[in-house]
Design a protein that fits this description.
Layout: E1 3-10, E2 15-20, H1 26-39, E3 48-50, E4 54-61, E5 64-71, H2 76-93, H3 99-104, H4 106-116, E6 117-118, E7 121-122, H5 127-137, H6 139-186, E8 209-212, H7 238-246, H8 255-258, E9 265-268, E10 290-302, E11 308-321, E12 329-333, E13 346-349, E14 363-364, E15 379-388, E16 396-404, E17 409-418, E18 425-434, E19 442-446, E20 449-453, E21 458-466, E22 474-482, E23 492-499, E24 507-512, E25 522-534
Parallel strand pairs: 10-25
Antiparallel strand pairs: 1-2, 1-5, 3-4, 4-5, 6-7, 8-9, 8-20, 10-11, 11-15, 12-14, 12-24, 13-15, 16-17, 17-22, 18-21, 18-23, 19-22, 20-21, 23-25
Helix pairs in contact: 2-4, 4-5, 6-7
């Protein structure tokens, strides 16, 4: 069968959308569609009509027609089956089959048409596969929308955090002034008073204020101020008016700074700007003319009593060729060294890429060896997915164990361990444990670094790198905090980026189709967490 075009037109023959799969001019397709309604016999139930050159296979679609224009030698049974798939795709993407709705979803419909028919020949796909392909193509757009919303929320939180710090500085200023006046009254000496501490206007805050652990046994001192000092009866400054407007959002007291060590003090911690590509601190890869990107996303929910509630790994391999001389190649994947996922690990190739089955040699090459991969255009050639609850597939195990004491405190011991996956190295791992309202922790032991996040009232435990080959493979954090509810420390949120592949996808070699000579290539393989929780 050869499908020349797939079109949706009005009952008068006016084209709404049309996709040509062979070289046809606009005038030619408009002429064919204009003559189509005149060929339909009245009072019949036929679904096809023919002319001397082409065959129309059609189906009514409310006030429109959806039709395939094929050559006369085409298999009409296959054409009808293809037409039904086109009609189901239109019904799935459009709420109603009217001209306005069709034009509104024209881009998605044309993309779906290309997935069903390629160069005039039907691809081996069904409605679910077409829907899955379209959803995966829009995944990056969804990520950008989430990033934009997060930036807006972070800007609002930044305003609140700055206001809180300004309020704490103002109260500390008042406390120091009162303390200085009292000491001068008791030991006035010759003058009977001592100078009031002088204050300077704090510099603009460029980083998010967070609560961090101190390394000395004395509370952190606020920055020394200088300037005009305190003025009784002075008018409110703009900062004070801002704080009054925020009202209850400011911190209630400064007891945090006055408490005994090692309780945290307010400090400014530079927050590294987050990279939009999600790589974090992963080392960059120098690109060759053949560059392969292997990216996986992990969604994992662990039960704090043990076991896996849900786990999903989605991965894709993208090929980018910079030199036209390298466009006709075959990519050989290395045999898997692990049994990750087993039969639950499913692969899906691009429609133009030859498929490989379980137990077969995993080769990525075009079905038509005379064709070439696109140049200077990233192409998703392979996708895979795993979904299950097998605990042996979990890359990083988290054990959070809160224990309530009789003195009104809870001791929390949390530990991590990188499981036996040697080809993976974790970077920028952050484990966030929520805290009871109004309570602040006393950390007794820890590996890595820890800090308090005032915006979410949680303790953030940061491990810069976790490797299977050194002592960073496992670590622990122990702290105590006031309270009696052991369930208040869940859910635990985990974020990291990693180098490698959970599914064990590795490129063994890249060779030219003609001659079989090996080609130089580069591989960038990494993992990101979409959602990692301990509930």
């Amino acid at each position: 069968m050869v499908v020349l075009a797939a079109s949706i037109c009005t009952k008068g023959g006016k084209p709404v959308i049309s996709r040509q799969f062979r070289d046809m001019t606009r005038t030619r397709i408009e002429s064919l569609l204009a003559s189509f309604p005149k060929l339909i016999p009245t009072n019949t139930q036929h679904t096809s009509v023919e002319t001397a050159q082409v065959r129309y296979v059609y189906q009514p679609l409310e006030d429109l027609y959806i039709l395939l224009i094929t050559n006369k030698a085409s298999n009409i049974l296959q054409d009808i089956d293809t037409l039904h798939l086109f009609a189901r795709v239109v019904s799935d993407l459009c709420r109603s089959a009217d001209e306005r709705e069709i034009l509104k979803n024209a881009f998605e419909l044309l993309g779906a048409f290309d997935e069903i028919v390629s160069l005039g020949y039907k691809e081996s796909v069904n409605l679910m596969q077409v829907r899955s392909i379209l959803e995966m193509e829009s995944h990056e757009e969804k990520i950008q929308d989430i990033i934009a919303r997060n930036k807006e929320a972070e800007a609002k939180e930044e305003l609140k955090r700055r206001a809180k710090q300004l309020e704490m500085q103002r109260r500390e200023q008042q406390r120091r002034a009162a303390s200085g006046s009292g000491s001068s009254y008791l030991g006035g000496g010759a003058t009977g008073y001592s100078s009031i501490p002088r204050f300077e206007t704090p510099e603009p805050i460029s980083t998010s204020p967070r609560v961090t652990n101190t390394t000395t046994s004395t509370p952190s001192r606020p920055p020394a101020f200088k300037g005009s000092g305190m003025k009784l009866g002075a008018k409110k400054t703009k900062q004070a008016e801002l704080l009054d407007a925020l009202g209850g959002d400011v911190l209630a007291s400064t007891e945090l700074e006055l408490s005994a060590p090692p309780t945290p003090a307010v400090a400014e911690v530079p927050v590294m700007p987050k990279s939009n590509d999600g790589r974090g601190s992963l080392p960059e890869v120098e690109k060759e003319d053949i560059h392969i990107v292997i990216k996986e996303q992990l969604s994992l929910s662990l039960l704090h009593d043990g076991g896996v509630q849900s786990m999903e790994v989605k991965g894709d391999m993208n090929l980018l060729i910079a030199d036209p001389a390298m466009s006709q190649i075959r990519i050989a994947l290395a045999p898997s060294t692990s049994n990750f996922g087993g039969k639950s690990l499913q692969f899906k190739q691009h429609p133009n890429v030859a498929k490989f089955g379980p137990g077969q040699e995993r080769i990525i090459a075009l079905k038509d060896t005379s064709r070439s991969f696109p140049v200077n255009q990233s192409l998703a050639v392979l996708r895979w997915r795993y979904s299950g609850t097998d605990e042996s597939n979990v890359p990083l195990s988290i054990n959070c164990w809160p224990t309530a004491s009789h003195d009104g405190t809870v001791e929390v011991s949390i530990e991590y361990e990188l499981e036996h996956i040697e080809n993976i190295t974790l970077y920028d791992t952050v484990i966030s444990i929520p805290l009871p309202d109004g309570s602040y922790p006393t950390v007794t032991s820890h590996s890595g670094e820890w800090s308090l996040d005032s915006s979410s009232h949680s303790i953030s435990w940061t491990i810069p790198m976790i490797s299977f080959h050194d002592e960073s493979q496992s670590g622990s954090l122990v702290f105590s905090v006031g309270g009696d509810d052991t369930g208040a420390f869940f859910p635990v949120l985990v974020n990291f980026t990693a180098k490698g592949s959970l599914a064990g996808i590795e490129v063994a070699s890249v060779t030219h189709v003609e001659g079989g000579d090996e080609a130089v290539f580069s591989v960038d393989s990494y993992i990101t967490t979409e959602e990692f929780l301990v509930v």
